[in-house]
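testing teh design pipeline on a random one, pls ignore if ur not involved
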């Protein structure tokens, strides 16, 4: 999941300041969206209605991306 989900999302986000990718094999989407003040909106949500939110947070952009990359190195 790291290579196909998180690393793809990080690459998209760095290039476009926005990312959307499938989260695993279920119809669930991982979204990263840039906000003002160097914040990032992290969202894992169902693709189809009703759109259940599995996880949502507003995080410091630099620290969050650095943590994801650091953890990806362990896999």
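output:
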């Amino acid at each position: 999941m790291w290579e196909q989900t998180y690393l793809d999302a990080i690459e998209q986000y760095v290039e476009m300041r926005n990312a959307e990718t499938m989260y695993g094999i279920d119809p669930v989407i991982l979204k990263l969206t840039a906000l003002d003040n160097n914040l990032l909106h992290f969202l894992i949500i169902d693709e189809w209605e009703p759109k259940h939110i599995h996880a949502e947070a507003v995080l410091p952009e630099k620290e969050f991306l650095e943590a994801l990359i650091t953890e990806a190195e362990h896999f």
